[in-house]
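call fold target=proteasome subunit beta
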Amino acid sequence: MRKRFGPYFCQPVIAGLGDDDKPFICTMDSIGAKGLAKDFVVAGSASESLYGACEAFFKPDMAPDELFEVVSQALLASVDWDCLSGWGGHIYIVTPDDTKEKILKGRMD
């Protein structure tokens, strides 16, 4: 039997700064179709619970430290509800002047 797309699928999240230093975020599905958004995008096995957490915590025009706190809380709240997720994540805060990576540790079971 021939495998059409191969055994692995991924759903990348693309984030950065676009024109006039405005945030640009999008995601792609397994065949490469873009999903553009103005507020947030989610991906991964905890996508369903991430949507709910992000909708609850997100608000426009947050400062970098406030955005890190919101991303952290949404990620931790979501992976606790999904048995396939966990271990934390890498959070990148991108500003016109700097890019900071922070490692968030979650449950390890």
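return ok
The first strand starts at residue 13 and ends at 17. The two ends are 36 Å apart (CA to CA).
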